[in-house]
# Entry
Amino acid sequence: MSNKVNDDSAVKLRPLNYPHGWYAGTGYSPYIDEFYHLASRSMISSSDHYLSAMAQVIHEPVQDNHRVPDILRSTCLRTYINEDHIDLEIFFINQSTGMTCAYTYPKDQLLVLFPGDYTSEMQTSLKQKYQIEELHRNKFEKNIAKLLKIFEEISINSNAVSDICEIRILKKDGPIK
# Structure
């Protein structure tokens, strides 16, 4: 059972300029927020531009040795429209090299970013219980129901996340606001 002491009402999914859809992150909030503000103010058009923005945002706190471990464990995501389909791209810092990295997540797979206090045993158990990698084609409601159950369980068992869940939809002509 969770021992949450805070009510986090921060916006979790944030709109980006078209053809980008939604932005989200997990980890050190000030870093995630600053990366979002930089990404949303400029017309970033490629993964390389996002990686440059990420490096720019990281530079000052890392120089001051301020919250470096928290920043290194942070992950940012964006959706974007790529020709006739929607992609999910993950931005993170390689903890071995310190380099910023991008990864386009495979289609038709469910991604869950676990909070820092979620042990590997807890993650494995949840993945098995909900068959996380399995998405049901053309079963939108079933997929949303699964996501909500996963979110509820993580929220109950973690002190690092709130119990607020946001769901946003991205169509090929842009985010639905």
